[in-house]
Design goal:
The protein is α/β, with parallel strands linked by helices. 40% of the residues lie in helices and 17% in strands. The chain has one domain: Vaccinia Virus protein VP39 (Rossmann fold). The protein has 13 helices and 9 strands.
């Protein structure tokens, strides 16, 4: 599997925090006074109370903007932190990259005093509702079947958790997988794809045929005819989920 030392080089340009998603994450964190961000990447969605970011990729760490929280290079499965190190720990769109999910979640619970917040996605919902993987990239989506974490499994490891759908706005500024659901031409842009692990980990051989079909459908107008209903929507639920576990 590719690492973020190779696939994360464009994150500072394409993966900027969306304010609506940020508001939902910060509400989920509640009135916690200090937060640790695990799998922090370039620092998107870190609230003002973030006291430490943990990220294994040096490439990602170097893209953190000036004024960001202090950061340490480490993996989720072995956090260099004492027990009960902060009120809350958050892990956003990262758990599917961990080598040992159970160990990583156990570490989140160990260092959090009060709350763990995890942003992930429900692969079954994603496959069914997101037109890109359903119609154009089913082979690439099959790779996600192996790395996606079933929600029930994650809730179990967290010791119970509430679930919140995270709607994706039509003009989402954070370029994750489904961010461009109403802007299909964006998926033909190599720079956009470079910030989405679905594309970078699948490889050109797996995604090129589907992207060629998408380009053709956009040229002929077939995509717009088939998905006219999407163009009237402000947001969609394609399976992104925020899990909140109180300890």
């Amino acid at each position: 599997m590719a690492t973020y030392d190779t696939l994360g080089a464009t994150y500072a340009r394409t993966r900027r925090p969306d304010p609506r998603i940020a508001a939902q994450i910060h509400t989920a964190l509640g009135n916690t006074t200090d937060v640790i961000n695990v799998g922090a990447g370039t620092g998107s969605y870190e609230p003002p109370g973030t006291v430490l970011a943990v990220e294994p990729s040096q490439v990602m760490l170097t893209q953190r903007p000036p004024g960001s929280a202090p950061a340490v290079q480490a993996v989720a499965e072995r956090l260099p932190l004492r027990d009960d190190a902060a009120d809350a720990v958050m892990a956003l769109l990262t758990i599917h990259h961990w080598a040992d999910l159970a160990a990583g979640i156990a570490e989140l619970r160990r260092v959090a005093r009060r709350r763990v917040v995890v942003l992930t996605w429900d692969q079954d919902v994603f496959r069914e509702r997101f037109w890109l993987v359903r119609e154009y990239l089913p082979e690439a989506a099959a790779l996600d079947d192996a790395r996606a974490v079933p929600i029930d499994r994650l809730v179990e490891l967290l010791g119970g958790a509430g679930q919140e759908p995270v709607p994706v706005p039509h003009d989402c500024v954070d370029g994750f997988g489904a961010a461009y659901w109403r802007r299909p031409h964006a998926y033909l842009d190599p720079q956009v794809r470079a910030g989405i692990s679905l594309f970078t980990q699948a490889g050109d051989g797996l995604i090129t045929p589907g992207l060629n079909r998408l380009a053709d459908d956009l040229t002929t107008g077939r995509w717009h005819t088939r998905h006219a209903g999407l163009l009237a929507l402000d947001s969609v639920d394609v399976g992104y989920r925020l899990l909140v576990a109180d300890l």
